[in-house]
């Protein structure tokens, strides 16, 4: 491949808490008539600028409906290849759906989320859901962790305790964090935008408002995937209180190549070209037709599962064996959050808003730390980071893990946070 051809293909890639009363719950309509006309069943509680407690409570009818839909799945015929090159193999998908219907504990996600303090508050006209856990160590570093697609707050559940209570998990008191984990607009239990404009820069400003509302005047931000885009824009905008950011997917595409790329650069460029040519179909659909893809995913839990399961297979450090890194229960927890909240279309709209525009390299002049996981979509290079981040204070390539860093390798993720935080705060 010539350098010019690689560069042309790369250009495509650019394309005090209120309310001491009972915790609020979200409710589901049990009306069969409502189901028959296809109205959404989840109704989130109203919000104000107050920070209001929130608790997940799913009516049994939701799980009954889900199991019935799973039992009625109509599968396509078998793929004509012996690998994942046409998407999720039929046998893999049938096995996952059978497990979901008959063996997965449908209330598992409720229990896991409700084990942590959750809240909702209105920011810029939109109700934002978040988990907030303060460390018992008074000098803990406040940190906001942001997920991407097809992730969710579920990605971070296994790192909350080690981050907030390090002395019980091999760390020191000075390793402690106060942890804030919001759901992106249109994801999970955050409200769904009803107008254009909720792209990465606007979310970045909303996160700054959230941290200020929680009383954090100095904090760091962390993200991967779209979460990396949000925290990059927080740094770009110099939002009040932000002292530094950590990325497990630095936004270095298209790469900032200077002159003729060396062999190491060529290898990473080839990974990006392969992604653009063969693995970015989902992104093109969600960027251009998020509403259309929303219809089949909102109607079929098996379809929603396949759309996400494929990414767990392709983007984990497992060579198309996602269960080598994530259990079926863990993957289904994330899929369940999309299904129960009917957020296939609303989450896809973030691609429509930002994938070809805001999700791009930004020159930053505040401290940046980067952890590179080997199973990532591509291998970002330190020389590229140094060309974009004038205060690159930490860069480390870890031994295991992929795109879903905290989800796949919570221990490594926590250690990377501890090692880099002192250089950012």
Which percent bin holds the helix content?
40-55%
Largest sheet, in brief, is: 10 strands, mixed
- Could you say which overall geometry the principal axes of the C-alpha atoms support? globular
Count of separate structural domains: 1
Average pLDDT reading = 92
The proportion of strand residues reads 5-15%
List its traits:
12 strands, two-stranded antiparallel sheet, 425 residues
Written account of the structure:
The strands form 2 sheets. A 10-stranded mixed sheet has the order 1-4-5-6-8-7-9-10-11-12, sandwiched between helices. A two-stranded antiparallel sheet has the order 2-3. The protein is built from 17 helices and 12 strands. β11 (368-372), α15 and β12 (392-397) form a beta-alpha-beta unit. It has one domain (3-15, 55-424): Alpha/Beta hydrolase fold, catalytic domain (Rossmann fold, 3-Layer(aba) Sandwich), CATH 3.40.50.1820. With 425 residues, it is an alpha/beta fold. The chain has helices spanning 3-10, 32-36, 60-71, 90-102, 108-114, 160-164, 200-213, 226-236, 263-279, 281-288, 290-299, 301-315, 328-341, 344-354, 382-388, 405-408, 410-424, and strands at 24-25, 27-28, 42-43, 52-55, 118-123, 126-133, 141-146, 177-182, 219-223, 242-247, 368-372, 392-397. The longest helix is centred in the middle third of the chain and has 17 residues, at 263-279.
